[in-house]
Protein backbone atom coordinates (compact mmCIF):
# COMPACT_ATOMS: atom_id res chain seq x y z
CA UNK A 1 0.00 0.00 0.00
CA UNK A 2 1.34 3.43 -0.91
CA UNK A 3 1.70 6.15 1.64
CA UNK A 4 -1.24 8.46 2.20
CA UNK A 5 -0.96 12.01 0.96
CA UNK A 6 -1.38 14.07 4.10
CA UNK A 7 -0.40 17.33 2.41
CA UNK A 8 -3.91 17.92 1.07
CA UNK A 9 -6.07 20.49 2.82
CA UNK A 10 -9.74 19.56 2.41
CA UNK A 11 -12.63 21.99 2.50
CA UNK A 12 -14.60 21.22 5.64
CA UNK A 13 -16.73 24.33 5.61
CA UNK A 14 -20.46 23.89 5.66
CA UNK A 15 -20.39 20.69 7.73
CA UNK A 16 -21.07 22.41 11.06
CA UNK A 17 -17.53 21.55 12.06
CA UNK A 18 -16.80 23.31 15.35
CA UNK A 19 -13.28 24.11 14.21
CA UNK A 20 -14.25 25.58 10.83
CA UNK A 21 -17.90 26.65 11.03
CA UNK A 22 -18.22 27.69 14.66
CA UNK A 23 -15.07 29.68 15.27
CA UNK A 24 -17.02 32.21 17.30
CA UNK A 25 -17.19 29.52 19.99
CA UNK A 26 -13.72 30.82 20.97
CA UNK A 27 -14.16 34.53 20.39
CA UNK A 28 -17.11 36.33 18.87
CA UNK A 29 -14.83 38.75 16.97
CA UNK A 30 -13.14 36.07 14.96
CA UNK A 31 -13.43 36.45 11.19
CA UNK A 32 -14.70 33.70 8.97
CA UNK A 33 -11.33 33.75 7.19
CA UNK A 34 -9.42 32.93 10.33
CA UNK A 35 -7.05 29.98 10.03
CA UNK A 36 -8.30 27.49 12.61
CA UNK A 37 -5.30 26.00 14.38
CA UNK A 38 -7.33 25.58 17.55
CA UNK A 39 -9.21 22.52 18.89
CA UNK A 40 -7.69 19.06 19.01
CA UNK A 41 -9.18 17.96 15.74
CA UNK A 42 -6.93 16.89 12.86
CA UNK A 43 -7.12 18.05 9.25
CA UNK A 44 -6.62 14.49 7.96
CA UNK A 45 -9.39 12.46 6.35
CA UNK A 46 -10.37 9.28 8.17
CA UNK A 47 -9.01 5.98 6.85
CA UNK A 48 -10.71 4.67 3.68
CA UNK A 49 -11.55 1.45 5.49
CA UNK A 50 -13.70 3.44 7.93
CA UNK A 51 -15.57 5.24 5.16
CA UNK A 52 -16.17 1.96 3.30
CA UNK A 53 -17.38 0.14 6.40
CA UNK A 54 -19.80 2.93 7.28
CA UNK A 55 -21.19 3.07 3.74
CA UNK A 56 -21.70 -0.69 3.77
CA UNK A 57 -23.44 -0.55 7.11
CA UNK A 58 -25.75 2.26 5.96
CA UNK A 59 -26.55 0.42 2.74
CA UNK A 60 -27.86 -2.44 4.82
CA UNK A 61 -30.73 -0.09 5.52
CA UNK A 62 -31.35 -0.70 9.22
CA UNK A 63 -30.10 1.43 12.08
CA UNK A 64 -32.10 -0.09 14.90
CA UNK A 65 -31.20 -0.25 18.57
CA UNK A 66 -27.81 -1.85 19.05
CA UNK A 67 -25.56 -2.98 21.88
CA UNK A 68 -21.85 -3.71 22.00
CA UNK A 69 -21.24 -7.34 20.98
CA UNK A 70 -18.27 -9.68 20.79
CA UNK A 71 -16.77 -8.11 17.66
CA UNK A 72 -16.75 -4.74 19.34
CA UNK A 73 -15.19 -6.01 22.57
CA UNK A 74 -12.56 -8.03 20.70
CA UNK A 75 -11.59 -5.00 18.61
CA UNK A 76 -11.07 -2.89 21.74
CA UNK A 77 -9.19 -5.66 23.55
CA UNK A 78 -7.02 -6.36 20.50
CA UNK A 79 -5.94 -2.74 20.11
CA UNK A 80 -4.85 -2.25 23.72
CA UNK A 81 -3.13 -5.63 23.85
CA UNK A 82 -1.16 -4.97 20.65
CA UNK A 83 -0.21 -1.39 21.39
CA UNK A 84 0.23 -1.36 25.16
CA UNK A 85 0.35 -5.02 26.15
CA UNK A 86 -2.73 -4.33 28.24
CA UNK A 87 -5.03 -7.30 28.84
CA UNK A 88 -8.47 -5.82 29.27
CA UNK A 89 -11.19 -8.25 30.28
CA UNK A 90 -14.32 -8.16 28.19
CA UNK A 91 -16.54 -7.52 31.19
CA UNK A 92 -14.35 -4.60 32.24
CA UNK A 93 -15.30 -2.59 29.13
CA UNK A 94 -18.23 -0.21 29.41
CA UNK A 95 -19.74 2.04 26.80
CA UNK A 96 -20.09 5.77 27.30
CA UNK A 97 -21.16 8.44 24.83
CA UNK A 98 -17.80 10.21 25.28
CA UNK A 99 -15.08 10.60 27.87
CA UNK A 100 -16.53 13.79 29.36
CA UNK A 101 -20.02 12.33 29.87
CA UNK A 102 -18.24 9.41 31.58
CA UNK A 103 -16.41 11.83 33.83
CA UNK A 104 -19.76 13.40 34.68
CA UNK A 105 -21.19 9.97 35.60
CA UNK A 106 -18.15 9.20 37.72
CA UNK A 107 -18.28 12.53 39.55
CA UNK A 108 -21.95 12.07 40.36
CA UNK A 109 -21.81 8.35 41.10
CA UNK A 110 -18.57 8.09 43.06
CA UNK A 111 -18.22 11.41 44.91
CA UNK A 112 -20.60 13.68 46.73
CA UNK A 113 -21.33 17.41 46.65
CA UNK A 114 -18.50 19.58 48.01
CA UNK A 115 -15.93 16.77 47.71
CA UNK A 116 -12.57 18.00 46.48
CA UNK A 117 -11.49 16.70 43.07
CA UNK A 118 -7.78 16.94 42.30
CA UNK A 119 -6.71 18.11 38.86
CA UNK A 120 -3.31 19.20 37.57
CA UNK A 121 -3.48 22.58 35.87
CA UNK A 122 -2.86 23.72 33.27
CA UNK A 123 -5.20 21.01 32.03
CA UNK A 124 -8.04 20.31 29.62
CA UNK A 125 -10.53 22.90 30.89
CA UNK A 126 -13.77 20.87 30.77
CA UNK A 127 -12.49 18.98 33.83
CA UNK A 128 -12.86 22.14 35.91
CA UNK A 129 -16.19 22.97 34.27
CA UNK A 130 -17.61 19.53 35.12
CA UNK A 131 -16.32 19.70 38.69
CA UNK A 132 -17.99 23.08 39.14
CA UNK A 133 -21.11 21.98 37.32
CA UNK A 134 -21.59 19.00 39.63
CA UNK A 135 -21.01 21.16 42.74
CA UNK A 136 -17.70 19.55 43.63
CA UNK A 137 -14.60 21.57 44.47
CA UNK A 138 -11.60 22.05 42.21
CA UNK A 139 -8.38 21.16 44.02
CA UNK A 140 -5.43 22.17 41.90
CA UNK A 141 -2.21 20.17 42.21
CA UNK A 142 -0.50 22.55 39.84
CA UNK A 143 2.19 21.11 37.61
CA UNK A 144 5.71 22.42 38.13
CA UNK A 145 6.82 24.40 35.10
CA UNK A 146 10.58 24.64 34.84
CA UNK A 147 11.01 26.74 31.69
CA UNK A 148 8.58 24.60 29.72
CA UNK A 149 9.61 21.28 31.34
CA UNK A 150 6.58 20.12 33.26
CA UNK A 151 6.52 17.71 36.18
CA UNK A 152 4.24 16.68 39.00
CA UNK A 153 4.54 18.43 42.36
CA UNK A 154 4.50 15.27 44.47
CA UNK A 155 4.81 16.93 47.85
CA UNK A 156 1.81 19.12 47.09
CA UNK A 157 -0.05 16.07 45.76
CA UNK A 158 0.72 14.23 48.99
CA UNK A 159 -0.85 17.05 51.04
CA UNK A 160 -3.88 17.08 48.80
CA UNK A 161 -4.57 13.34 48.80
CA UNK A 162 -4.17 13.31 52.59
CA UNK A 163 -7.02 15.78 53.00
CA UNK A 164 -10.05 13.55 53.58
CA UNK A 165 -12.28 16.03 51.74
CA UNK A 166 -10.47 15.18 48.50
CA UNK A 167 -11.90 11.90 47.25
CA UNK A 168 -10.95 11.72 43.59
CA UNK A 169 -8.14 12.66 41.21
CA UNK A 170 -8.45 13.23 37.47
CA UNK A 171 -5.21 12.14 35.86
CA UNK A 172 -4.71 13.37 32.31
CA UNK A 173 -2.33 10.83 30.83
CA UNK A 174 -0.86 11.81 28.38
CA UNK A 175 -1.38 15.34 29.53
CA UNK A 176 -3.34 17.82 27.43
CA UNK A 177 -2.14 20.55 26.91
CA UNK A 178 1.46 20.32 28.20
CA UNK A 179 2.19 17.13 26.25
CA UNK A 180 3.82 15.09 29.00
CA UNK A 181 3.61 11.32 28.69
CA UNK A 182 3.97 10.32 32.33
CA UNK A 183 6.65 7.75 32.98
CA UNK A 184 5.94 4.49 34.74
CA UNK A 185 7.81 5.80 37.79
CA UNK A 186 5.71 8.96 37.95
CA UNK A 187 2.51 6.96 37.55
CA UNK A 188 3.52 4.53 40.30
CA UNK A 189 4.08 7.47 42.66
CA UNK A 190 0.68 8.96 41.82
CA UNK A 191 -1.08 5.63 42.26
CA UNK A 192 0.67 4.90 45.56
CA UNK A 193 -0.27 8.28 47.00
CA UNK A 194 -3.89 7.79 45.97
CA UNK A 195 -3.96 4.21 47.24
CA UNK A 196 -2.55 5.16 50.67
CA UNK A 197 -5.32 7.72 51.00
CA UNK A 198 -8.17 5.85 49.32
CA UNK A 199 -8.53 8.42 46.53
CA UNK A 200 -10.31 7.27 43.37
CA UNK A 201 -8.36 7.82 40.12
CA UNK A 202 -10.08 8.73 36.87
CA UNK A 203 -7.35 8.13 34.31
CA UNK A 204 -8.17 9.98 31.08
CA UNK A 205 -5.99 8.27 28.47
CA UNK A 206 -7.64 9.65 25.37
CA UNK A 207 -4.31 10.84 23.91
CA UNK A 208 -2.53 7.51 24.47
CA UNK A 209 -1.81 6.86 20.78
CA UNK A 210 -0.50 10.32 19.95
CA UNK A 211 3.04 9.84 21.28
CA UNK A 212 6.37 10.82 19.69
CA UNK A 213 8.60 8.14 18.27
CA UNK A 214 10.49 6.43 21.06
CA UNK A 215 8.00 7.52 23.73
CA UNK A 216 5.66 4.91 25.18
CA UNK A 217 2.45 5.54 27.03
CA UNK A 218 1.82 3.37 30.09
CA UNK A 219 -1.83 2.63 30.91
CA UNK A 220 -2.26 3.35 34.62
CA UNK A 221 -4.13 0.12 35.26
CA UNK A 222 -1.21 -1.98 33.97
CA UNK A 223 1.17 -0.88 36.71
CA UNK A 224 -0.89 -1.61 39.79
CA UNK A 225 -3.57 -3.74 41.35
CA UNK A 226 -5.06 -0.74 43.15
CA UNK A 227 -8.77 -1.31 42.65
CA UNK A 228 -10.03 2.28 42.68
CA UNK A 229 -9.08 3.25 39.14
CA UNK A 230 -11.41 4.00 36.25
CA UNK A 231 -9.80 4.52 32.86
CA UNK A 232 -11.33 6.30 29.89
CA UNK A 233 -10.09 5.62 26.38
CA UNK A 234 -11.64 6.35 23.00
CA UNK A 235 -10.75 6.47 19.35
CA UNK A 236 -11.62 10.17 18.95
CA UNK A 237 -8.07 11.52 18.93
CA UNK A 238 -6.38 8.41 17.54
CA UNK A 239 -8.47 8.18 14.38
CA UNK A 240 -9.63 11.78 14.10
CA UNK A 241 -13.27 11.04 14.84
CA UNK A 242 -13.69 13.38 17.80
CA UNK A 243 -17.29 14.12 16.87
CA UNK A 244 -18.33 10.51 17.35
CA UNK A 245 -19.89 9.94 20.75
CA UNK A 246 -18.35 6.65 21.79
CA UNK A 247 -15.68 5.84 24.36
CA UNK A 248 -14.59 2.85 26.37
CA UNK A 249 -14.60 3.04 30.13
CA UNK A 250 -12.47 0.39 31.79
CA UNK A 251 -13.41 -0.79 35.28
CA UNK A 252 -12.04 -3.98 36.86
CA UNK A 253 -13.38 -3.77 40.38
CA UNK A 254 -16.80 -5.38 40.96
CA UNK A 255 -18.00 -2.79 43.47
CA UNK A 256 -17.01 0.06 41.15
CA UNK A 257 -18.81 -1.68 38.28
CA UNK A 258 -21.98 -1.76 40.38
CA UNK A 259 -21.79 1.97 41.03
CA UNK A 260 -21.08 2.66 37.35
CA UNK A 261 -24.08 0.50 36.38
CA UNK A 262 -26.35 2.33 38.81
CA UNK A 263 -25.21 5.74 37.58
CA UNK A 264 -25.29 5.05 33.84
CA UNK A 265 -27.97 2.43 33.29
CA UNK A 266 -30.36 3.10 36.15
CA UNK A 267 -30.08 6.88 36.35
CA UNK A 268 -29.38 7.83 32.74
CA UNK A 269 -30.45 4.78 30.83
CA UNK A 270 -27.17 4.38 29.01
CA UNK A 271 -26.57 0.86 27.77
CA UNK A 272 -27.22 0.79 24.05
CA UNK A 273 -24.62 2.18 21.63
CA UNK A 274 -24.96 3.85 18.22
CA UNK A 275 -24.61 1.16 15.52
CA UNK A 276 -22.55 3.31 13.16
CA UNK A 277 -20.16 4.25 15.94
CA UNK A 278 -19.60 0.61 16.82
CA UNK A 279 -18.87 -0.28 13.19
CA UNK A 280 -16.45 2.62 13.10
CA UNK A 281 -14.75 1.48 16.31
CA UNK A 282 -14.39 -2.12 15.13
CA UNK A 283 -13.02 -1.09 11.74
CA UNK A 284 -10.61 1.46 13.15
CA UNK A 285 -9.17 -0.84 15.80
CA UNK A 286 -9.02 -3.90 13.54
CA UNK A 287 -7.89 -2.43 10.23
CA UNK A 288 -6.50 1.07 10.54
CA UNK A 289 -3.35 0.85 12.64
CA UNK A 290 -1.31 1.80 9.55
CA UNK A 291 -3.29 5.08 9.39
CA UNK A 292 -2.34 6.03 12.95
CA UNK A 293 1.31 5.20 12.35
CA UNK A 294 1.49 7.27 9.16
CA UNK A 295 -0.33 10.19 10.71
CA UNK A 296 1.94 10.13 13.75
CA UNK A 297 5.02 10.09 11.49
CA UNK A 298 3.67 13.15 9.70
CA UNK A 299 2.92 14.84 13.02
CA UNK A 300 6.48 14.09 14.13
CA UNK A 301 7.78 15.80 10.98
CA UNK A 302 5.47 18.74 11.62
CA UNK A 303 6.92 19.12 15.10
CA UNK A 304 10.42 19.06 13.62
CA UNK A 305 9.31 21.69 11.12
CA UNK A 306 7.84 23.79 13.93
CA UNK A 307 11.02 23.57 16.01
CA UNK A 308 13.19 24.59 13.05
CA UNK A 309 10.80 27.35 12.04
CA UNK A 310 10.82 28.86 15.52
CA UNK A 311 14.60 28.55 15.76
CA UNK A 312 14.84 30.54 12.57
CA UNK A 313 12.24 33.28 13.10
CA UNK A 314 11.69 33.41 16.87
CA UNK A 315 14.81 31.78 18.33
CA UNK A 316 14.25 33.02 21.85
CA UNK A 317 11.10 30.88 22.25
CA UNK A 318 13.29 27.81 23.00
CA UNK A 319 10.46 25.51 21.97
CA UNK A 320 10.82 21.72 22.32
CA UNK A 321 8.57 18.98 20.93
CA UNK A 322 6.25 17.46 23.51
CA UNK A 323 6.35 13.73 24.33
CA UNK A 324 2.72 13.26 23.40
CA UNK A 325 -0.44 14.78 21.87
CA UNK A 326 -0.60 16.57 18.53
CA UNK A 327 -0.86 19.91 20.30
CA UNK A 328 1.93 22.44 20.56
CA UNK A 329 2.08 24.42 23.82
CA UNK A 330 4.12 27.50 23.12
CA UNK A 331 5.15 30.59 25.06
CA UNK A 332 6.10 33.73 23.10
CA UNK A 333 6.46 35.72 26.33
CA UNK A 334 10.08 36.68 25.70
CA UNK A 335 8.84 38.69 22.73
CA UNK A 336 5.34 39.93 23.50
CA UNK A 337 2.54 40.09 26.00
CA UNK A 338 0.37 37.07 25.23
CA UNK A 339 -2.96 38.88 25.66
CA UNK A 340 -1.87 41.56 23.19
CA UNK A 341 -0.72 38.89 20.77
CA UNK A 342 -3.99 36.96 21.11
CA UNK A 343 -5.94 40.15 20.36
CA UNK A 344 -3.88 40.91 17.29
CA UNK A 345 -4.10 37.35 15.97
CA UNK A 346 -7.88 37.42 16.26
CA UNK A 347 -8.52 40.95 15.06
CA UNK A 348 -5.92 41.44 12.33
CA UNK A 349 -3.90 38.36 11.40
CA UNK A 350 -6.80 35.91 11.30
CA UNK A 351 -5.27 33.05 13.22
CA UNK A 352 -7.21 31.08 15.73
CA UNK A 353 -5.10 29.38 18.40
CA UNK A 354 -6.09 28.80 21.98
CA UNK A 355 -5.18 31.10 24.82
CA UNK A 356 -3.36 29.04 27.46
CA UNK A 357 -5.21 30.76 30.26
CA UNK A 358 -8.32 28.80 29.28
CA UNK A 359 -6.55 25.77 30.81
CA UNK A 360 -6.13 27.45 34.19
CA UNK A 361 -4.31 30.58 35.39
CA UNK A 362 -1.03 28.68 35.26
CA UNK A 363 -1.51 28.39 31.48
CA UNK A 364 -1.30 32.18 31.09
CA UNK A 365 1.44 33.14 28.67
CA UNK A 366 1.01 30.01 26.56
CA UNK A 367 -0.87 29.21 23.39
CA UNK A 368 -2.15 25.82 22.31
CA UNK A 369 -2.08 24.99 18.64
CA UNK A 370 -2.79 21.77 16.77
CA UNK A 371 -0.06 20.49 14.47
CA UNK A 372 -2.03 17.58 12.98
CA UNK A 373 -2.59 19.34 9.69
CA UNK A 374 -0.93 19.69 6.26
CA UNK A 375 2.47 21.32 6.64
CA UNK A 376 1.55 24.22 4.35
CA UNK A 377 -1.37 25.04 6.64
CA UNK A 378 0.86 24.98 9.69
CA UNK A 379 3.39 27.18 7.91
CA UNK A 380 0.71 29.70 6.93
CA UNK A 381 -0.40 29.91 10.57
CA UNK A 382 3.17 30.34 11.76
CA UNK A 383 3.89 33.02 9.13
CA UNK A 384 0.94 35.01 10.43
CA UNK A 385 1.96 34.54 14.06
CA UNK A 386 5.49 35.73 13.27
CA UNK A 387 4.12 38.75 11.39
CA UNK A 388 1.96 39.65 14.40
CA UNK A 389 4.88 39.28 16.81
CA UNK A 390 7.14 41.37 14.58
CA UNK A 391 4.45 44.07 14.43
CA UNK A 392 4.20 44.13 18.22
CA UNK A 393 7.93 44.15 18.81
CA UNK A 394 8.58 46.85 16.20
CA UNK A 395 6.20 49.21 17.92
C1 LIG B 1 -7.91 14.91 27.72
C2 LIG B 1 -9.24 14.90 27.03
N1 LIG B 1 -10.29 14.28 27.59
C3 LIG B 1 -11.51 14.26 27.00
C4 LIG B 1 -11.73 14.89 25.79
C5 LIG B 1 -13.10 14.88 25.19
O1 LIG B 1 -13.55 13.58 25.06
P1 LIG B 1 -15.02 13.26 24.54
O2 LIG B 1 -15.23 14.04 23.29
O3 LIG B 1 -15.00 11.77 24.32
O4 LIG B 1 -15.95 13.64 25.63
C6 LIG B 1 -10.66 15.56 25.15
C7 LIG B 1 -10.87 16.24 23.88
O5 LIG B 1 -10.15 17.10 23.46
C8 LIG B 1 -9.39 15.57 25.80
O6 LIG B 1 -8.35 16.20 25.24
UniProtKB/TrEMBL annotation:
<keyword id="KW-0663">Pyridoxal phosphate</keyword>
<protein>
    <recommendedName>
        <fullName>cysteine-S-conjugate beta-lyase</fullName>
        <ecNumber>4.4.1.13</ecNumber>
    </recommendedName>
</protein>
<comment type="similarity">
    <text>Belongs to the class-II pyridoxal-phosphate-dependent aminotransferase family. MalY/PatB cystathionine beta-lyase subfamily.</text>
</comment>
<dbReference type="InterPro" id="IPR015422">
    <property type="entry name" value="PyrdxlP-dep_Trfase_small"/>
</dbReference>
<dbReference type="InterPro" id="IPR015421">
    <property type="entry name" value="PyrdxlP-dep_Trfase_major"/>
</dbReference>
<keyword id="KW-0456">Lyase</keyword>
<dbReference type="InterPro" id="IPR027619">
    <property type="entry name" value="C-S_lyase_PatB-like"/>
</dbReference>
<dbReference type="InterPro" id="IPR004839">
    <property type="entry name" value="Aminotransferase_I/II_large"/>
</dbReference>
<dbReference type="GO" id="GO:0030170">
    <property type="term" value="F:pyridoxal phosphate binding"/>
</dbReference>
<dbReference type="InterPro" id="IPR015424">
    <property type="entry name" value="PyrdxlP-dep_Trfase"/>
</dbReference>
<dbReference type="Pfam" id="PF00155">
    <property type="entry name" value="Aminotran_1_2"/>
</dbReference>
<feature type="domain" description="Aminotransferase class I/classII large">
    <location>
        <begin position="75"/>
        <end position="385"/>
    </location>
</feature>
<dbReference type="InterPro" id="IPR051798">
    <property type="entry name" value="Class-II_PLP-Dep_Aminotrans"/>
</dbReference>
<dbReference type="GO" id="GO:0047804">
    <property type="term" value="F:cysteine-S-conjugate beta-lyase activity"/>
</dbReference>
Amino acid sequence: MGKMNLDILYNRRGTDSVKWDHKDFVDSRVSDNALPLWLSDMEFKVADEITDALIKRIEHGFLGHSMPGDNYFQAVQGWYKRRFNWDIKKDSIFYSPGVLPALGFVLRGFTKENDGIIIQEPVFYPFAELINGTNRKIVNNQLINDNGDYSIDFSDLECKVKDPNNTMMILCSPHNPVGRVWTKEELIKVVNLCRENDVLIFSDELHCDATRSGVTHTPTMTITDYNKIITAVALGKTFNVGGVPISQIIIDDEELKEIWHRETRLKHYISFAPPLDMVLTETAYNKCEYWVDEVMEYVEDNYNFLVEYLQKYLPKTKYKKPEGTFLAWINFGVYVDYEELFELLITKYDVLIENGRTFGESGAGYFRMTVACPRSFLKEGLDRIVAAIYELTDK
